[in-house]
Amino acid sequence: MTQPIPILVTGGAGFIGSHTCKHLAQHGFLPVTLDNLSTGHADAVQWGPLERADLRDAVAVEAAMRRHQVKLVMHFAASAYVGESVQDPALYYDNNVGGMIGLLKAAQACALDKIIFSSSCATYGEPQTSPVSETCPQIPMSPYGHTKLICEEMLQAYEQAYGLRHVALRYFNAAGSDPEGVLAERHDPETHLIPLALLAAAGQRGALSVFGDDYPTPDGSCVRDYIHVQDLAHGHLLAARYLLEGGPSVALNLGSGVGQSVFDVIHAIGRITGRPVPYDVAPRRAGDPPALWACAQKAKAVLGFETRRSTLDHIIQDAAPSFGLPCNKKEASHVRFVAE
Which residues are catalytic? Predict the structure, then answer.
């Protein structure tokens, strides 16, 4: 019987990491989670062993790699709040860049030459046009986005010097949760639009703040690209197979390729759950582009990646139960609208 291939998943106790671990285990891999549990949850580690360690401790990371004889790394572990990164950039450079330094040092010591990196559309900054392709300039506007770009540049340098092959996956807005209800989104503090809107609909918080209703978009609110976390997990599975089969380094967008506005989200939640989302219109936030969604054609060409559950209706259907909200699936149309 073929033994499952061990993959080190840094940040595997977090939102996207834990969903990816489940998906990997379902497809013949052994996810080995490495997490310091500063923001992750130990009870989300259910499909493989947990190594509790900090990435900046290269000795501990190397020991975990050797103990489990891992063949590839998926690197999710990072601080990931844009606003916090502006207020406390030292934390972000220490954790995100320092963590990458420790991880790459350990990988070198183990002669491990394959890594999938959880990057971000924040590396693009404020693009002038959408959809955003991988050829758009990377001009990050926050320390968070800058740390992600630095890590991408480190991977490129390590490839040139040491032969490290990598896939950098630039996510757009991760959303949704495990359709089977085993995992859910649990951020503290919560900053993402869809869970904030669901909390408001459930009466677990006050009115949702809509930051601006006078943008040059169809309904005046910001337009974003929401991708289901399960689709993100599948993208990582495809990237792992790609590298294990000898594929060259590449940077790819992972998004739905569809733009949805803030008011689209609000109306969809009300329609699907039967609970209206209370909201107030607040002033625009500095640095928020009117519209931002992905061109994901390169991921399709290179990996064969296509989204399966990234309609707004699917995302809300899967996420709503974890907030105690009913879900009227008859009201969910699963229609995809591409923003023009």
Answer: 144
